[in-house]
Specification:
The complex is a heterodimer of chains A (about 180) and B (about 150).
Chain A lengths: L1 H12 L6 H17 L6 E7 L6 E2 L19 E10 L5 E6 L2 E5 L4 H16 L7 E7 L4 H12 L12 E6 L3
Parallel strand pairs in A: 2-3, 3-6, 6-7
Antiparallel strand pairs in A: 3-4, 4-5
Chain B lengths: L14 H17 L20 E2 L7 E6 L5 E3 L2 E3 L1 H18 L10 E9 L5 H14 L1 E9 L8
Parallel strand pairs in B: 2-5, 5-6
Antiparallel strand pairs in B: 2-3, 3-4
Helix pairs in contact in B: 2-3
The chains are: A alpha/beta (about 180), B alpha/beta (about 150).
């Protein structure tokens, strides 16, 4: 009697799960993930803080005591204006830093270097506290060209070593 | 008589294979990136070597895919940028109100606006989008670009 019981117990222990169904499902999931897998592109970004527009003071303007910010509104900024007129194909037609013309024609490496050198010279001058750059951009200038110019601007440092990160845009009315 | 193994007993041990498959499934589940779904891969972004890698913080992002026509692309659909930004700003204000902060239209919103524009998008169109964002209260912007030339191919 007891032998028979023992044999019966051993039979129960041998029960195995059929894993084939689970494996099928796991393969289905795997196939789904493999087919939908698309690695995210490596993108970089240029961070900008674009506050609401505020008055622009010319560089040689005298600061009157009444103009001093007392917490009621933003102080007038000393702004370096870069004027970029555009050609119809989205390229740069000409560029002007401040009042001086920098070049005519589309952007290339040499011209970008020229812009970089000019901006370095401008920001290196002590006592000329430019604290932001205003880009006056032609209507049809492409985003790609604009980014090249912004890239050069964000690389600049002011006389005290702080990076130039206040950049704003204005649409240039072209004839 | 020696026992001849019957066909019923010739079952492979599936456990290691199942283990491996589950490992792979787990890997793909962890790697899957739902945020990438909001990126429009048809846009050709400019290549800027010095662009900083995008922050992967917990910041609230508003991704704007701007195509050459100046329209915002969202999951393959073209949308008017003005209404799209206005709706997103409304939602952001509602979120702030629910957390107990009182905000009105034009007040600063904490979201970071990520602009992914096609390299051929004219400034006129891009400026429209940026101005609308500013008027709705967005202050922080990130202009996206590719860091390597090979990545611009989608």
């Amino acid at each position: 009697m007891s032998r028979k019981r023992k044999k019966h117990r051993n039979k129960q222990e041998d029960v195995t799960l059929n894993l084939a169904a689970m494996l099928d499902m796991a393969f289905q999931l795997l196939a789904f993930f493999i087919l939908t897998f698309k690695p995210a592109p490596v993108e970089g970004q240029i961070n900008l803080n674009l506050p609401p527009p505020r008055p622009i003071a010319p560089l040689n303007a005298e600061v009157k005591p009444d103009d001093v910010d007392e917490g009621n509104g933003p102080a007038p900024a000393h702004t370096l204006t870069i004027t970029i007129s555009s050609a119809g194909n989205g390229q740069v037609a000409s560029m002007q830093v401040g009042l001086a013309k920098l070049f005519d024609g589309p952007l290339n490496r040499d011209r970008l270097r020229m812009l970089d050198r000019r901006l370095k010279d401008v920001f290196a001058i002590e006592g000329k506290p430019y604290d932001q750059v205003l880009l006056r951009v032609g209507k049809s200038l492409g985003y790609g060209e604009l980014m090249k110019i912004i890239d050069v601007c964000t690389k600049q440092k002011m006389a005290d070593g702080t990076p130039v990160n206040k950049i704003s845009f204005v649409e240039l009315t072209e004839k | 008589m020696s026992a001849v193994p019957s066909a019923e007993n010739a079952e492979p041990n599936l456990t290691p294979m199942l283990d491996m498959v589950f490992q792979l499934v787990t890997f793909f589940m962890l790697v899957i990136n739902f945020q990438a779904a909001s990126l429009d891969m048809s846009l050709k972004l400019p290549i800027i070597g010095s662009a900083r890698p995008a922050d992967k913080g917990a910041e609230d992002l508003l991704v704007l895919n701007v195509n050459k026509a100046g329209k915002v692309m969202m999951y393959g659909n073209e949308q008017d940028p003005v209404t799209f930004v206005a709706n997103e700003a409304k939602e952001a204000r509602l979120k702030l109100e629910l957390s107990g902060k009182k905000v009105k239209k034009g007040d600063e919103l904490p979201s970071l606006v990520v602009v992914r524009a096609d390299l051929g998008t004219p400034f006129e169109m891009l400026n429209k989008v940026l101005t609308e964002c500013q008027s709705q209260g967005f202050r922080k912007f990130a202009l996206r670009a590719m860091t390597k030339a090979g990545d611009s191919k989608s």
